[in-house]
Amino acid sequence: MIRKHLLLTLRNLKKNLLYALLVIAGLAIGITTFLSTIQWSSWHLTFDRHYPEKEYIYRLTFEEINEGFYRHTARILHGNTLNRIVFSDMLAGIEKSGRLAPFRKAAFLVGENSYYDKYAFGCDPAFLEIFHPTILQGDPEGLLEEPFTAILTEATARKFFGNTDPIGQSFELIHQFGVEPEHYRVTAIIENFPGNTHFRISVLTSFESPLEYEGTAWTYLKLDPLNAVEEVKERIKLFIDTNFNNSYAERIHPRLQPVSDIHLHSHLAREIQPNIRFRTVLILMITGMLVFLLAWFNFTLLSFSQNQLNIRRLVVQWQMGAGKRVFFRQFMMDNLFVGTISFVAGILLTILLFPAIEKLGGQVIFQNIRWFLVSIILLFLLIVSSSVLTALFSTGRLYRHLQHKYLSSKVGSPPDTTGKNLFIRAVIVLEFIITFILISNLFMIAKQTRFAMSEQLGSSHMKSIHLHSLHRSVVDDFEVFKKKMLESPHVAGVTASMEEPTGQAMDANTFEIDGIDEGDKQLFLFPVDQDFIRFYGLEMIHGSDLPVTYDPADSTEYFVLNETAARMLSDNIEDLLGSELTLHFNYPGFIWPGPITGIVEDFHLSGLDYEVSPMVVFPKYTWLFCFSIEPSGNPRLTLDHLKLVWEEMFPAFPLEYHYSSDLIEQLYESELIQIKILLIFSVLSIIIAGMGLFALSGFFMQKRVKAAALRKINGARVHQLILPELLYYLWLALLSSALAIPASLFLIERWLRNFKYRTEIPVWIFPACALVLVLFSWVAVFYHSLRLARINPAEFIKEQ
C-alpha cells in the first residue's frame, strides 16, 4: 500500500516538477533560517550560564544620582570605597569578592616581540575561586598571591611563547598610564574562557599589594546562599553610609546584577566588552521565526492547492471505490514526501552555509549540538503534523465536493477550488503580513542607524585617522608629534583628546563658579588640545573657541561648556561667559582655575544610546590619550608619513590606527549586523512568498482556462482578463498591510527604545511597504495571468 502511494506521489511530482522545486526550495530556506536563528538566539541566551554557582554570582556597581548629575558605570570608579568593601569583615552575606582591574591597552614585551592587549587585568585570587577556570598547567594552589605573578590563557601562552613551556617564563608589561615596564613571571596556564562569557581574558596578574590598590575595577561577589540579594545590597549601602561623609554616601547607591543577566541586560558605560540587548535578540528571533513560518505556510498552502487541483483524478479514484482512508494516506504521503526532502535539504544547506552564517552573526554560534538536535526534532515533528493536518483538511474538502456534485440533489455551484477560498486567502494574507513586518522593520532600523552614525562625533570626518588608548610615554610627546605631522603637505590638521570619537568620558568633578560652590553638581571632564573644536567643526553657540595657542605650563585654564552643562548652570547661558570656573580636582594645582570662554553645541562622543552629559572641554596635554589626524588628500599618503614619524619617535610601541568610519562602524556593529540579517530575511521572505504565489497562480490558471476562453470568445480583451487578477492581489496586499501596521509599529517602537535620541518614524514607510507588497505580488502572478489572458480559445475548444 505504501509503495503504491509513493509511486503516485512520485508521478505527481514528476508531472508538476516546477511546483516540487519551488516548494522544496522555499521550505529548505525556511528551515535554514529557523536553525540559524535558534542557534544565534540560544548562543546569546546562554551567556554566563555555564558557571556551577551562577545563581550566587553577582556584579557590584555604583549608581550615582545627584542634582544635575547621573553616572552608572560597570567598572567601579571609586577605588577607595571599593577597597574598603572588598576587605571589610563587617559585611555578612558575601563569601568571596574579586576585582578585575584594567591595564587598559597593555603593551607586552616578550623577548624581542611587542604586543598590545586590552584583555589583561590585575586580579584578586578570589576571582579564580568565584569563576573556577580550568588549570591546564602549573600549581593550582596559591595562584596570584605573590606579587608580579601572572596566569595566561592557553591562546595567549601560545601567542607569547609558541611551543616553549610557558611556566616560569617572564614578560614585561606596561600599563597604559605607566612609563616603566614591570616584570611578571608565569605561574599557570588556564583554559580559554568560553566565548559565551561577558568578559574576555588573556592575562591575569597579581596585585603588587591588594590591600593598597584603590584604582578602578570590575567587581564580582559570590553571595552566601542563605542571604537574600536585597539584604546584602542594604548592608553594602549601610556600610557606605556609616564609613563615608554624608554628601558622598547619599549619592552612591550599590547595585547587584546576576552575572547571567549582564550580557543581555547591562549596557552601562565602561562595560568590560560590548554586550547585546535582549530586545535585539528578541526581534531577530521573531523575524527569523516569521521567515520560517512564511515558508511553512507556503508549504501548507501549495500542498493543499495541489490536492485541490487533482479533483478529476480523485473523482475517478472515488468512483472506482477509493475511500477516505485511501485519500488521506495519499495526501499525507504527498505532503510528507515533499516535506522530508525539504527537511533534509534545509539541514544540508545549513551545514553548508554555517561559516557564512557565523560570520554574518558576528559569533561562533554553531556549538550547541543539543539545541541543534532539539531544533531538528521539532522541525520534523512540525512537518509531520502539518502533513497530517493538511491531509485531513484536503480529504474533508474533497468529500464535500463529491457530496455536493454527486450525492446531493441541491442545485448550485460546487465548493470553490480556484484558489480564492477563505483558507487560501488567509494564508496569502499571513504571508503578506510577515513580509510587510520584515520590510518595515528593516527600513526603520536602517534609518535609525544611519541617523545615529551621522550624529556621531567624527561622522563628518570619516577619513580622519585616530590613534587611541595611547601610552603615557607617547602622550607626553604630543607637541613634538603634532609638529612633525604638520610638516607634511598630506596632513590638514592634528588634534588630540582624552577619548576617541565613540569613546566615553566618565571622569567628573564638583566645581565652583566665581568662587561660589555649586554644591553636589558635577561636570564631566573632557581634556583636549586647543584645536579640537575647530578640527571637528563644532558650532560655538556663544562666546569664543579655545585659544589658538596653549602653553601647558600656564597657570590659567580656558574652559568651554557644552550646551547641556550650560543649561544645567543657568537659564541665561550667555551670562556664564567670562565667569571663572574652578574644578575640585583630587590633586590641587593640577587643573588651574580659568574663564569660561564659550558654549559649544552638544556633540555625541558616545553612542546615541547614552544621554549627552554636562561636559567641560579644556586643553590639558596630560590626558590626551587619542591623537587624531585629518588627511589633506589621499589617506594612504598621510599614513605613510604617520608611519615614518611613529617609527622615529615611538619604535617600542606597535602602530595601531583606526579611521573614523571604522570606529563608528564598531560602535554600531550590533545594529549593522541587524540590518544585514533583516535584509537577508526580507529578501528571503520575498523570494519564498514570490515562489509560492508564482506556483499558486500557475496551478489555478489551469482551473480558470475554461472561463478565460469563454470570455475571449465573447470579446474580452487581454487587459480585461489580466486586470481582475491584479486587482485581486492588490486587495489582498492592502488588507495585509492594514493588518500588519500595528505589529510593525510595536516592534519598531520596542527597538527604538535602545536609543536615547531617535529619528522620527516617517509617514511614508508604511505606504512604501504596501507598495512593495503590491509590486512583488503582481510580478509573481503577472506571467501566469498574461498566459491566461493570451490563451487561444480555438485550441481550448479543440482540446475539449
- What form results from the Cα inertia axes? globular
The major pleated sheet works out as: 13 strands, mixed
SS strand fraction: 15-25%
Mean pLDDT: 84
Integer-rounded radius of gyration:
34 Å
Q: Which spans of ≥5 residues are poorly predicted at pLDDT below 50?
A: 416-420
The quaternary state of the protein chains shown equals: single chain
Count of beta strands: 26
Helix content: 40-55%
Q: Which structural class best describes the helix and strand composition?
A: alpha+beta
* Tally of helical runs: 24
- Distance between termini? 34 Å
Describe this structure in words.
The protein has 800 residues and is α+β, with helices and mostly antiparallel strands. Strands 1, 2, 3, 4, 5, 6, 7, 8, 9, 10, 11, 12 and 13 form a 13-stranded mixed beta sheet that branches. Strands 16, 17, 18, 19, 20, 21, 22, 23 and 24 form a nine-stranded mixed beta sheet that branches. Strands 15-25-14-26 form a four-stranded antiparallel beta sheet. β17 (511-513) and β18 (516-517) form a beta hairpin. The longest helix has 39 residues, at 369-407. It starts with a helix and ends with a helix.
Features:
800 residues; alpha+beta; 9-stranded mixed β-sheet; 26 strands; globular
How would you summarize this macromolecular structure in one to three sentences?
The chain is globular. The strands form three sheets. Strands 1, 2, 3, 4, 5, 6, 7, 8, 9, 10, 11, 12 and 13 form a 13-stranded mixed beta sheet that branches. Strands 16, 17, 18, 19, 20, 21, 22, 23 and 24 form a nine-stranded mixed beta sheet that branches.
